[in-house]
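User: Hi! I'm working on a homework problem where we have to compare a predicted structure to a textbook description. Could you give me the structure for the chain below?
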Amino acid sequence: MSQIRQESDEFGILIRTYAATFPAGFVLEPHTHEWAQLVYAARGVMTVEAAGGSWVVPAHRAVWVPGGTAHSVAMSGTVAMRSLYLVPALAVGLQRECRTVTVSPLLRELIVEAIAIGILYRDSPIQARLAGIIIDQLATVRAEALQLPTPAHPRLRAIAERLRTGPELEIRLASIAADAHMSVRNFERIFRAETQLTFVQWRRRMRLLHALRLLAAGRAVTEVGFDVGYRSTSAFIAAFKRELGTTPFQYYADDTKAPA
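Assistant: Happy to help. Predicted structure tokens:
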């Protein structure tokens, strides 16, 4: 606790908070801040874009954004955003890269309590203890496979962006490799080295993350499956469950049960 009490800004602030509800389609343009941020989706789906990729944040998940990271946030459906900003000294031992994380019931309640207080100060023993528990929880959160890495290679990055704007496109790997002026083998090798995913894995994740945004906007499961390139609803549901561990319906079943 003594360490928590020492690590604050000049005004004695440990954690600042922010709560807002945004309409569908609203975008927070690229920006940066010195303090690390936990961006929690109490309702709706957000997409955080930063160097190296994009991170989808469905309801009851959060994305960790290290201090100094330029990023934008786009809303799918109506979004209830709840954010915690940690004074830089508190974030030193936490992740140094963006990632989407699971928000446990305990962390969710801690976020709600911090938002209700507004600002957590070092000189308040209760608030300093609350900040300490939040840090402990953030040190052990589990990352979710909701990141879509962006290749650094210019030709691969251009192809990835083209596929993101047309997730339903069925383009053979040989054709994509030819567009990049590479052999299939070389294309796959470089793509995997830069994204840590095979091209097939990347395209499947890209489609399912786009599906999350469409579902959050109220689109029907059957319609969404076809829109992201699946030939049947059953194939879409099966792929969704393999990647995210549950069906589309179950994934959103608890959206209205947790505190906002």
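For your comparison, note the following. The domain at 151-251 is CATH 1.10.10.60 (Arc Repressor Mutant, subunit A). Residues 199-216 form the longest helix (18 residues). Good luck with the assignment!
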